[in-house]
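Quick one:
INPUT:
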């Protein structure tokens, strides 16, 4: 998948998610926006990668369904907005079966979608979503 195809995939899933009033409710607070500005995109990306690897990627994540707080970190908000909050939601929305570990490719795609949503939420151009922009 090249960059353009990946972006099309993100747009497709975000279009489906936009029809969910629950998912559409999630937006960054001022405080969470400030956190992104303070930390920079490299750090936000590495936090997103950690959350995906530790909280979603295992075949049976600890406390699955409750592992993602509703606020407190911009990536948590992005996870709820994009249905990357738990394996149940990932199965329902992203058709990734629960009960098995995520592949490295699936983890990268999840991080990419989280960053794509965050940059869009921050009003930044979509084409730089995959880059390590500061
Ligand atoms: Zn969930």
């Amino acid at each position: 998948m090249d960059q353009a195809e990946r972006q099309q995939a993100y747009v497709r899933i975000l279009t489906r998610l936009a029809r969910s009033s629950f998912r559409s409710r999630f937006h960054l607070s001022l405080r969470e926006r400030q956190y992104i500005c303070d930390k920079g995109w490299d750090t936000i990306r590495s936090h997103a990668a950690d959350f995906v690897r530790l909280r979603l990627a295992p075949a049976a994540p600890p406390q699955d369904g409750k592992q993602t707080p509703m606020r407190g970190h911009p990536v948590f908000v992005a996870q709820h907005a994009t249905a990357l909050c738990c394996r149940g939601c990932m199965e329902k929305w992203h058709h990734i079966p629960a009960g098995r570990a995520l592949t490295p490719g699936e983890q990268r795609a999840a991080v990419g979608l989280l960053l794509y949503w965050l940059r869009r939420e921050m009003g930044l151009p979509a084409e730089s979503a995959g880059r390590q922009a500061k």
